[in-house]
Amino acid sequence: ELGYDVIDLNMACPVKRLRGCARGGHLLHQPEKASEIIQEVSQAVGGRVPLTIKLRRGFDDEQDSEKNFFRIIEDTIDQGFFAAVVHGRTVRQKYEGPSRWNFLSQLTQRYPDFRIMGSGDIFTPESVFEMLARTGVDAVSVARGAIGNPWIFRQASLLLEGKAPRPPSLEEQGSVLRDHFELCSRFHTERKTQKLMRKFGIKFSIHHPEPGNAEKAFISCRSLSDWWDVFKRLYCDTEVAAGEIPSGDSP
Ligand SMILES: Cc1cc2nc3c(=O)[nH]c(=O)nc-3n(C[C@H](O)[C@H](O)[C@H](O)COP(=O)(O)O)c2cc1C
């Protein structure tokens, strides 16, 4: 009714505060509850839009966890889900240690007719193709690799066409960083915007022609006007970025 194209059930989020209310990845060790949700959502949606599920490879490394995972994924297959996106870490692992891509290979071999999308440790456009080749997944999900490098999708598309992935020009960097600022300030308070944009400025600095100086400059920002001063200095040799620089603390 609200016009969404897809409904995704999240049984992967490791955030602790979800534990008490049995949500996200914490459902992975409550397979009965997980199955109930899968069935009820499937019945309620009645095939009107595709359903997907996001899973981690288990709650932890205990044997029961693996059993629970397979029970849950088989429920989604039985309920006609469109695909499962699987992150090859356990909930307990959070982000420690590598994502186990071998587990993704096991899944694609075990369920050749069900769409499996892979997640975990995709930090470069090349790693998208490495995961496809090594695991046989149908698609790859990019997450932290896009933080500070939103061009990763374009770079992967270029690789797919057999072309070399092009780094972003200074003009593109300035333009995206500026849009990022505007979106951030639309949804967050000034204080939060300052904190987030300092962090993203630091992340974006790896693309700058002088990455070390750019990083230091963003690290030193203590206010929004500091941030804009740094932005102007680093990115405003170019017309797009120079456009209309807000004069005060906000755009
Ligand atoms: C800041 C942040 C927010 C995330 N939010 C979601 C989310 O809303 N839904 C989801 O399925 N996964 C979410 N994830 C998990 C990622 O989709 C992905 O499975 C995980 O980061 C592993 O991939 P990576 O190692 O390539 O980052 C989030 C991850 C991060 C870092």
Automatic annotation (TrEMBL):
Residues 2-198 form the DUS-like FMN-binding domain. InterPro entries: Aldolase_TIM, DUS-like_FMN-bd. SUPFAM superfamilies: FMN-linked oxidoreductases (SSF51395). GO terms for molecular function: RNA binding; tRNA dihydrouridine synthase activity. CDD domains: DUS_like_FMN (cd02801). PANTHER family: TRNA-DIHYDROURIDINE(47) SYNTHASE [NAD(P)(+)]-LIKE. This is DUS-like FMN-binding domain-containing protein.
